[in-house]
Amino acid sequence: MKRNKGSIPVMYIAHILLGLIILLPLGFALVSSLRPLDEIFRYMSPVSWRTFIPTHITFDAYVSLFTERGFGRIFFNTFYVSIVNVVIGLVIASMAAFAFVYFEFRGRTLLFFLVILTFMIPFEVIAIPLYGLVDKLGWIDTYSGIIVPGLANGLVIFLYRQFFLDLPKALIESARIDGASWFKIYAGIILPLCKPVTVSAGLLIFIHQWESFMWPLIATRSKAYKVIQVALSDFVTEFATYWNEMFAGIIIAVLVPVLVLLPLQRYFVNGIANTGSKE
Q1: Cα torsion 56, 60, 63, 65: sign
Q2: Which CATH code fits 59-274?
Q3: What pLDDT is attached to residue 83?
Q4: CATH 1.10.3720.10 segments of the chain
Q5: Which of 21, 89, 98, 140 is the most exposed place for a label (fewest CB within 10 A)?
Q6: Alpha-carbon torsion 22, 23, 28, 30, what sign?
């Protein structure tokens, strides 16, 4: 079907408006992070060019984040927790999906149903019993307490399973006939074919962990293990709100996932679009 030429300008206008709706708040946060605290809301009413273009640029908010707020440690904590979740989470999810697809065992369907159920249940439902379990293990206020509960991700297992179902079973059967072990098939044959879904799953885990707020807030008490989303809530105090530092922290929190996602977006889209589709 030929596209109506009159609809093309409308589509571009709609895309521009949607882009402005998404980018304007982020642009305001960037501009506000470069302003002194007492000038952030000075040009809000009426709205003018000064609202989005600072007349006095200062990097004091960013300097304060790392010199007074300890954002160096916070940034390391968030990055470390996210990377460990990605690496170990991908191994666990891919091995679980491999077992669901290629092994026959009693209760396989029921167990996979429970895996699907895990990413449909709101986290708030399991927060209290999960805290009690982690507390009994002595993991409160530790990296283990933040990382371990999120390692097994039901959605990632589902993505891997759907991808494995599309792989030709003749490939596995021929490898078994040649005497290859299951681990060699998994590590040497299956995983090299899983680059698109691995990138997609890794990005999902990384972004989810980077934006995680509730569980790190519950599982940590000291500043030594604080992550960036929890740290952003510290700028609102009983007597004042440090808006310029908050906006600077928001820009840093947004910038890292964007820098990770942009060079890998092609693999991310292909992995999500092709998972579960038959060729």
Answers
A1: negative
A2: 1.10.3720.10
A3: 95
A4: 59-274
A5: 21
A6: positive
